[in-house]
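Attaching the record inline, Q. Sequence:
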Amino acid sequence: MKAMILKKIISLKENKHPLELVDIAIPEPLDNEVLIKISVCGVCHTELDEIEGRTPPTKLPMVLGHQVVGTVVKLGFGASKYKIGERIGVAWIFSTCGQCKFCSQGHENLCDQFMATGRDRNGGYAEYMTAPEKYAHLIPDFFTDVEAAPLLCAGAIGYRSIQLTELRDGQKLGLTGFGASAHLVLKMVQFRYPTTPVYVFARKEEERKFAKELGAVWAGDTADITPEKLDAIIDTTPAWAPIVEALKNLEKGGRLVINAIRKEDADKNYLQNLSYPEHLWLEKEIKSVANVTSKDVVDFLQLASQASIRPEVQLYTLEEANKALLELKEQKLGEQRYYRWDKK
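Structure, as predicted:
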């Protein structure tokens, strides 16, 4: 089968072709696993973190990709959850121990043995992959393969971010950064919290315009001050500056949720601007998002189907995976879009 593999950690500034197209054997499903014929896989900023070493794969070479949609073509011994031909998806969560205190309490995203798709086990930048049936998810008929792919990461992690804000209907929510996940968060909030106004911070004018077209009541630059203090803010950027700037707009007792696996180091010196009385005092909170649970994925897919949430997409072939990653890195395309590859 064809696969795009990462052989070594590199800087995309130095090497614009980090993945190599190879021909490797189709994997065999282990006990309680399924073999998936992949139709489409999403491209995520976390792949940039893997390639550049901020969250490196546990072994190399590695097939990246954790927004995978395809059909079941073979069952491993003991696998019975799905039938041959059913359409399923695999998200960032590949497996956990299932036995620790975190798993037993429904917090499997915090498991010490958490395995990530495309980082700890081969992912979706290929024609086939295997996955534990427990962590594969039936795709609602409402979505095409291409529409479903971004929901498995940008959607599911956005859903978890909203949960962590503990938002109540009518409270004011801010979104700093208006990329893939924030786009879906806005749509989720409109469906679940119809009287909650959403304020968007984005660097580019076209992003701010797009946010208002989608229903944001206000859109400004990252460093702008909102007309009112916000009860919660979700950060979806790879940078540090939006964190500091967002805290200025947070209401007393408000919560900032950081939706990022890793932050880049380019502007880490901006943290020197962090002022306790201006940014943190009066019981403001900062909470990070760590991975997703299986329940997050299942619940969000159901919600997205009920709310008719369909993402915008742009297609690339498997062989164009490096191009998609580079354009995501350089932000040459509008950040409101999703970047996918489709082997067809």
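The longest helix spans residues 145-165. The two ends are 14 Å apart (CA to CA).

More tomorrow.
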